[in-house]
């Protein structure tokens, strides 16, 4: 899961519960898109 710094930290707790790693990016879809295009993450939230 990738999320921008402006997204709630509750997402971190939810992902931790299910063992899903979280990548934090600066604000802006271009940063999330970079993570998605790399194949390292399957979902992104801003």
From TrEMBL:
Where exactly are the transmembrane stretches of this chain?
none
**Domain Alpha-D-phosphohexomutase alpha/beta/alpha: start-end pairs:** 2-46
Query: What GO biological process terms are annotated to this protein in UniProt?
Result: carbohydrate metabolic process
Single Gene Ontology MF annotation: intramolecular phosphotransferase activity
The identity of this protein, by name, is Alpha-D-phosphohexomutase alpha/beta/alpha domain-containing protein
């Amino acid at each position: 899961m990738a999320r921008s710094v402006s997204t709630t930290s509750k997402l971190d707790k939810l992902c931790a519960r299910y063992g899903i790693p979280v990548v934090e990016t600066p604000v802006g879809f271009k940063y999330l898109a970079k993570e998605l295009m790399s194949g390292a993450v399957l979902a992104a939230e801003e």
